[in-house]
Design brief:
The structure holds two protein chains of two kinds. In chain A, 68% of the residues lie in helices and 4% in strands. Chain A is mainly alpha-helical. Chain A has one domain (11-75). Chain A is flat. By secondary structure, chain B is α+β, with helices and mostly antiparallel strands. Chain B has two domains: 6-112; 115-243, Alpha-Beta Plaits (2-Layer Sandwich), CATH 3.30.70. Chain B has six helices and twelve strands. In chain B, strands 1, 2, 5, 6, 7 and 8 form a six-stranded antiparallel β-sheet that branches. In chain B, strands 10-11-9-12 form a four-stranded antiparallel β-sheet, with helices on one face. A two-stranded antiparallel ribbon of chain B has the order 3-4. In chain B, helix 4 (137-147) runs antiparallel to helix 5. The chains are: A mainly alpha, B alpha+beta. Chains A and B meet through strand 1, helix 1, helix 2 and helix 3 of A and helix 1, helix 6 and strand 12 of B.
Chain lengths: 77, 257
């Protein structure tokens, strides 16, 4: 018998769904997704304040954005 | 200075202008007012957004995007937009609406009364390679041949083993996805296969489900989960607005650099 996970509409689920559909290709990077998932989990578990989360997230996403731009420039798009 | 840009959440049917309150993406730290921009009975749900501001997929932006769509979805059919659509001006939004009016109308009819459910099925195993080796005698034999000798395997041998593993993984995914689609097809208006983003992911499916079929859809889900072996985890989420089933492209010229 398979295991069924109940639907979960918390922050994590929202992040996952929205990120999957965001046009930002930067989320294709598995390591980065894992890091973001870890951040969301910490926030949801109350191990981190919203302010701490936002600060870490901005750093990570901005770094990604740079990588993404660089890749696009390289690909000549 | 007035903000000319418009952030776009989705498209709805609206015979009068609507005001959804200050629940939109923040502009200089303050939630923006969400309202409609209309052509006939079609309304684009928008909020003011400076095109000079860089729009990054951050929680503080993703959350209002999702919440606006979810709240509207609870009262009417919405064609949800992917995160990140910004028009340069309101005139650009109106132009896009006029140009696509018939297509939007058709899409609203197609998506009416339907929601999206997502299902990710995963192999709950510590090591996917070991799992497939245990399931597949031929793969196990090649693994033993490759590693079973006193000399270290050559690069070519490793590549052969890797290739067979990839083939078996693709085969297992295809087989299980087909089985899942067969099970759910009668209970969904449309089904969409997404690429698995994780090597332990068997399938990632989106279903367009009529609201009045939700109960049978969920019953089918419980039944399916109990019919699959223990290592299969069914992770389902929803209902969402039908993001994966939107076929319309407004072709808004991106205002973001």
């Amino acid at each position: 018998m398979g295991i069924l996970m109940a639907p979960f509409n918390g922050l994590m689920a929202i992040f996952r769904e929205v990120a999957d559909r965001a046009e930002a290709e930067m989320y294709d990077d598995e390591a980065v997704r894992a890091e973001l998932v870890r951040l969301y989990q910490s926030l949801e578990a109350g191990k981190m304040t919203v302010e701490e989360f936002d600060a870490c997230e901005v750093k990570l996403v901005e770094r990604l954005d740079e990588i993404d731009r660089h890749k696009r420039a390289q690909a000549g798009r | 200075m007035a903000i000319a840009g418009r952030y776009l959440y989705g498209l709805i049917r609206a015979t009068a202008d609507r005001d959804f309150g200050p629940v939109g993406l923040p502009v200089v730290g303050t939630p923006s007012a969400v309202h409609t921009v209309r052509v006939g009975d079609i309304g684009a749900v928008v909020s003011n957004f400076s095109t000079k501001e860089r729009l990054l997929p951050l929680r503080r932006n993703l959350e209002p995007h999702n919440r606006v769509i979810r709240d509207i979805m609870s009262e009417t059919t919405i064609i949800p937009m992917a995160f990140g659509q910004v028009a340069r001006t309101e005139a650009d939004v109106l132009k896009a609406l006029r140009f696509n009016l018939q297509a939007i109308d058709k899409e609203l009819v197609r998506l009416d009364g339907k929601v999206e459910m997502t299902l990710r099925v995963l192999w709950d195993v510590p090591n996917i390679f070991e799992y497939l080796v245990n399931e597949d005698r031929e793969l196990a034999r090649l693994r033993d041949e490759t590693f079973g000798r006193s000399s270290a395997p050559t690069q070519a041998e490793m590549i052969d083993l890797g290739k067979m593993f990839e083939e078996r993984l693709a085969f297992a995914r295809k087989r299980d996805t087909k089985r899942l689609i067969t099970i759910f097809r009668p209970h969904a208006a449309e089904v969409k296969e997404n690429d698995p983003k994780d090597e332990k992911m068997v399938a990632h499916l989106s279903f367009l489900v009529r609201r009045d079929q939700m109960k049978t859809f969920e019953e089918t889900l419980f039944q399916a989960a109990s019919n699959f072996p223990d290592v299969y985890v069914f992770d389902y989420n929803g209902p969402w607005a039908p993001f994966s089933f939107v076929e319309i492209d407004l072709q808004l010229e991106s205002a973001q650099a």
